[in-house]
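Let us walk through a complete example step by step. Step one is to write down the protein sequence. Step two is to encode the small molecule, flavin mononucleotide, as a SMILES string so that its atoms and bonds are unambiguous. Step three, shown after the inputs, is the structure prediction itself.
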Amino acid sequence: MICYFSATGNCKHVAERIAEATGDRAVSIEGLEPEIQLSEGEVLGLVTPVYFWELPIPMSEFLERANFKMRPSYTYLVVTYGTRTGCSSGHAGKLLKQKGIGLDAAFSIRMPDTWTPDFDLTDKEATAE
Ligand SMILES: Cc1cc2nc3c(=O)[nH]c(=O)nc-3n(C[C@H](O)[C@H](O)[C@H](O)COP(=O)(O)O)c2cc1C
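Step three: the predicted structure of the complex.
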């Protein structure tokens, strides 16, 4: 199961591409019940943007309230970001640890930065970089 949060589509795109490639399902955390039913041996993927060098509040709150019925066999994090990932994977690792789940791997993918006070998303040259 791949749980993702995506405000503007980058993480939704990444989660769906990973799901396609691995035969998994990508599920938005918005409206997801806190009781998460994993099957035995299931892999858990988390896909989220970086906000202010950490996890966005919707993802950190999701990890705090989630009750994973079965411990995942392997857990990975993919963050999308614009400039710096900061301590986003450490943040996720800490929250997962509180659930007794280890973070096995963390990946980052640079995408167009949606922090609009700094980045002009109407500039196609810059966002296509
Ligand atoms: C409020 C806000 C804060 C952000 N903070 C960071 C940051 O600290 N570091 C970074 O590299 N990108 C930051 N970004 C850029 C996003 O992480 C990046 O564009 C991400 O791919 C957006 O994913 P989404 O389209 O799935 O929402 C921020 C974006 C927003 C809207």
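Step four is interpretation. The chain has a mean pLDDT of 93.
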